[in-house]
Amino acid sequence: MLNFIAAIGSAAAGGATAYESIATVTLAVDTATVSFTSIPSTYQHLQLRLIGRGNRAATVSTLRATVNSDTGTNYAQHNLIGDGATATVGGAASGSNFDIAKVSGATATASVFGVAIVDFHDYASTTKNKTIRTMAGVDLNGSGEIQLRSALWINTSAINRIDIVNQTSNIIAGSTFALYGIKGA
Question: Does the predicted TM-score (pTM) go above 0.85?
Fold first, then answer.
């Protein structure tokens, strides 16, 4: 599935060499944190693609992230979520992390995972704050939702680490996270 998504993204970006794989993690056991460390600063943007599920005792679990181990109140975020009948919006001005996606939780249909594509714009810049954009979805056996999210890391440091956690529990085995570097035009 991730290879299919990669092929679509690469073609849309102008060619097969526009995206380069940095690292892929597929969990063999339930895990508290997925980390990408020592991220090279040689790309214009980063893209994280995930297929995930949490073991929170609910139909959905929210995956959250921090960058560069920053857990201060340096993140702002907005979201627009639609379930086919209702659209909801939300946001926060000063969080210690940012939401990247709602994925299936422990009480959702077995073997159903959520998906997300997360873009980190100008991640290597040292002159501007970082903008993060997410497009995600989760199927809850006919009652799922589509999510559009944006976040701002209020810091001008280059991003060299991304940590992903589940809101109150672990990310389950079988979840896959793939980090890509996007070359500039």
Answer: yes
14-36 CB burial, b ≥16 within 10 A, e <16: eeeebbeebeebebeebbeebeb
Taking the C-alpha atoms of residue 138 and residue 81, their distance in angstroms, rounded to an integer, is 11
Nearest to 179 by CA among 26, 77, 60: 26
Segments of the chain with pLDDT less than 50: 1-2, 4-14
b/e per residue 82-102 (b: at least 16 CB within 10 A): eeeeeeeeeebeebebbbbbb
Structure tokens at 18: 């526009």
Write the DSSP symbol of residue 37.
-
List pLDDT tens digits, range 23-69.
999 999 999 999 999 999 999 999 999 999 999 988 899 999 999 99
Tell me which DSSP letter residue 25 carries: E
Q: Where are the domains of the chain?
A: 2-182
Which tokens go with 16? 């097969």
Query: Which residues are paired to 102 by β-bridges?
Result: 62
Fold type of domain 2-182 = Jelly Rolls (2.60.120)
